TrEMBL record:
InterPro entries linked to this entry: ABC_SsuA_sub-bd, Solute-binding_3/MltF_N, SsuA/THI5
Domain Solute-binding protein family 3/N-terminal residue range list: 6-231
Organism annotation: Conexibacter woesei (strain DSM 14684 / CCUG 47730 / CIP 108061 / JCM 11494 / NBRC 100937 / ID131577)
Keywords for the protein's UniProt record, in alphabetical order: Signal, Transport
Identification of the protein by name: Aliphatic sulfonates family ABC transporter, periplasmic ligand-binding protein
């Protein structure tokens, strides 16, 4: 029997909003008047989100753009809750700065590219290759995603620096550190091929059953993002203390300052972006079938952010 007084939230370091929310008291204060409680389900990689949703072990979580598309393609009944503003500076397709053989994306044909497959990086690579006249199978993909603790991005950076791959799709704070060290140069900025929004979504049955808990979740997202935006040094200390890896507070602060904060309603522009990405992933056989993104846009979930 579902518990109408419980919200189960999937948390991982790749969604900073939820990672910080887990460690601050905003949601607990919002749930108290409802006599409700939260269960935090923490895991190292955002790619664990879909299995946990499918197993009914979490109700909501946040990832990049690819997982909700994959969820629909796999038949999981999910609804979008909110999305961030575009994050054009978050993530790049890069090569080593001393590599003089790869100048454009088309030069990657037959070469190894490190990425966290299934994350937003899948869309980034698929679109970049498509624009260069290549397919997803024209490169050898080296998956940096893992279920154990550690940073997908840190693994990719290490592979590139050791020369075990030819290119890497990196994200902050590891990408920022590599750029500042002069170790990499970009082939494609994320903003050239996708908006790369953070996306919060969840199970439709939960959204229907517990609208007040979902409303509290959205308000907590608004509050935690406002806190991070106002307090980058304190937020950076939180991430340096609790996130996996050896990233310093200074590196975290730089990374946090170049992200947009504040969840936004699910609107037409977002749906159209997702549909274009979903169509490409289906056409190239990266997801199981073609989907209609609007099937996952449902009231009241889509309207909650505007009300928060």
């Amino acid at each position: 029997m579902p518990d109408d007084t419980l919200i189960r939230i999937g948390v991982h370091p790749s969604n900073p909003s939820l990672f910080a929310l887990r460690r601050k008291g905003f949601l607990n204060r919002l749930l108290a008047p409802l006599d409700a409680r939260v269960e935090w389900v923490e895991y190292p990689s955002g790619l664990t989100t879909l299995p946990l949703l499918a197993q009914d072990r979490i109700d909501v979580s946040g990832t990049g753009a690819t997982p909700p598309i994959s969820a629909q393609a796999d038949g999981l009944d999910v609804v979008y809750i909110a999305a961030s503003e575009p994050r054009p500076a978050h993530g790049k397709l890069v090569v080593r700065s001393d590599d003089d053989e790869i100048e454009v994306v088309a030069d990657l044909k037959g070469r190894k590219v490190a990425l966290a497959h299934g994350s937003y990086q899948t869309i980034l690579l698929a679109v970049a290759l498509d624009q260069a006249g290549l397919t997803f199978d024209d490169v050898e993909r080296v998956d940096t995603a893992a279920a154990d603790a550690g940073s997908d991005s840190a693994r990719g950076r290490a592979l590139l620096e050791r020369g075990e791959v030819d290119a890497w799709i990196g994200g902050d704070p590891d990408l920022l550190a590599a750029e500042q060290a002069g170790a990499v140069r970009p082939l494609i900025d994320t903003g050239e091929v996708m908006s790369n929004r953070s996306v919060w979504f969840g199970r439709r049955d939960f959204a229907r059953r517990s609208p007040l808990l979902l409303e509290a979740f959205v308000e907590a997202l608004v509050q935690i993002d406002a806190w991070i935006a106002r307090n980058p040094p304190a937020a950076a200390e939180l991430f340096a203390a609790h996130a996996p890896g050896l990233t310093s507070a200074e590196e975290w602060e730089s990374a946090l300052r170049r992200r947009p904060w504040g969840p936004k309603p699910i609107g037409d522009a977002f749906v159209e972006e997702q549909q274009r990405a979903a169509d490409l992933l289906a056409r190239q056989g990266i997801v199981a079938r073609r989907i209609d993104v609007r099937d996952a846009v449902a009231e009241p979930a889509a309207a909650l952010v505007g009300a928060a």
